[in-house]
Design goal:
single chain; alpha+beta; hypothetical protein PF0899 fold; 3-stranded mixed sheet; 3-stranded antiparallel sheet; 6 strands; elongated
Length: 119
């Protein structure tokens, strides 16, 4: 059900920026640490956008890998599973470099075609 709330938030953001224009594509970035199931998000996005200017819009999802950094030894790595212990020194403070993203990167909307034919 978490994905339904996220889909609703994405739809609200897109609606605000579409300014009444039909939406064709929504490009979304999701970090691996966000614990979002992409197929579930796609399913709920189709539901929450029914009968809106986003109905039928394609939701494109880019998954950003988790990248961690040990402030003790400087090691950087992509964990296979959520562990926050440095594999090199097993001590130090680990900070997240990427993987927590959840944002609408861009949207593609239908524009009114301007007639350029001579009158």
């Amino acid at each position: 059900m978490h994905e339904m709330a996220l889909s609703s938030a994405v739809a609200a953001t897109v609606e605000k920026h579409a300014k009444g224009r039909p939406v064709k594509v929504v490009n979304l970035t999701i970090g691996k640490l966000r614990q979002v199931v992409p197929d579930s998000l796609l399913f709920y996005f189709d539901i929450v956008t029914r009968d809106t200017l986003m109905q039928g819009a394609q939701l494109k999802i880019e998954i950003v890998p988790a990248r961690l950094h040990c402030t003790g030894c400087g090691e950087r790595w992509e964990p296979d599973f959520p562990t926050f212990r440095c594999p090199a020194c097993v001590t130090g403070v680990v900070e997240v470099l990427s993987g927590e993203e959840f944002q609408v990167e861009s949207i593609e909307v239908e524009e009114d075609e301007v007639c350029t034919a001579p009158k």
